[in-house]
Amino acid sequence: MFRLKLPTDPRWANIAEGNLEEILTDHAWCELKAASNAMMLINLLPEFTEITTELTSIAKEEMDHFEQVHEIIKARGWVLGRERKDSYVNDLFKFMKPGSRKNLIVERMLFAAMIEARSCERFKVLSENIKDEELAKFYRELMISEANHYTSFLQFAHELAEEGYDVKQRWEEWLEFEAKVIASYGKSETIHG
User: Fold this and answer.
1) Backbone phi, then psi, for 107, in 5-degree steps?
2) Rounded to an integer, what distance in angstroms lies between the CA atom of residue 125 and that of residue 16?
3) Which of 57, 63, 133, 176 has most Cβ atoms within 10 angstroms of its Cβ?
4) Which residues, including other chains, have CB under 8 Å from residue 150's CB and lie 6 or more apart?
5) Which Pfam families does UniProt cross-reference here (predicted)?
6) Cβ contacts of residue 15 below 8 Å, gap of 6+?
7) Per-residue b or e along 89-127, where b marks 16 or more CB atoms closer than 10 Å to that residue's CB
8) What are phi and psi of 4, to 5 degrees?
9) Residue 111, CB half-sphere, CA atoms under 13 Å: how many?
């Protein structure tokens, strides 16, 4: 589905389910960061009207997802904890290549697509492997919604790439790199951990 080279071990869902308050808090912060990322991308390319319009929709949807997760946290009598560091995302960030303004924007789109792809895959694993029926249903619905973001970012990368920038080849490089990065994760109750 996402062409990820290293799928998540389904046993990660058991780790996540062992501390639902933590996974939900981490998830809420992931949604907030995703909304911030969409807004930052708007700052980088306001002259691309159609992409800006789509990024605005993505930012709103990510904020809606944040609100949904926050409501689940409140309904369960918990409180949203402080922001969590996301080492996985920081590791991916280092893989971006410098270049022209346009190529840097394309790299940011591929970076965003990679995060969305792994997040969606993790939502799928949660939806299929946790016993909490409410959350299993929630993560199934969220996975479908978030998959659209992954494909949108890839599409934006193709639309913005300058001549000579091979988006398909670069995406393959991202997939290979991400497989190496994610191999050291999957051991904690965080969306990317």
Assistant:
1) -60, -40
2) 10
3) 63
4) 2, 113, 116, 117, 120
5) MiaE
6) 186, 187, 188, 189
7) bebbeebeeeeeeebebbbbbbbbbbbbbbbbbbbbbbb
8) -65, 140
9) 21
pLDDT digits (tens, 9 = 90+) for 124-169: 999 999 999 999 999 999 998 888 999 999 999 999 999 999 999 9
Residue 125 near residue 59, CB atoms below 8 Å: no
Tell me: the pLDDT tens digits for 114-134?
A: 999 999 999 999 999 999 999
List the structure tokens of 180: 């190496």
Query: Cβ–Cβ contacts within 10 Å for residue 51, how many?
Result: 20
SS3 readout for the chain: CCCCCCCCCCCHHHHHHCCHHHHHHHHHHHHHHHHHHHHHHHHHCCCCHHHHHHHHHHHHHHHHHHHHHHHHHHHCCCCCCCCCCCHHHHHHHCCCCCCCHHHHHHHHHHHHHHHHHHHHHHHHHHHHHCCCHHHHHHHHHHHHHHHHHHHHHHHHHHHHCCCCCCHHHHHHHHHHHHHHHHCCCCCCCCCCC
Rounded to whole angstroms, how far apart are CA atoms 159 and 74?
41
- Cβ burial, residue 142 (10 Å; 0-12/13-18/19+): buried
Query: Which amino acid does the sequence have at 27?
Result: H
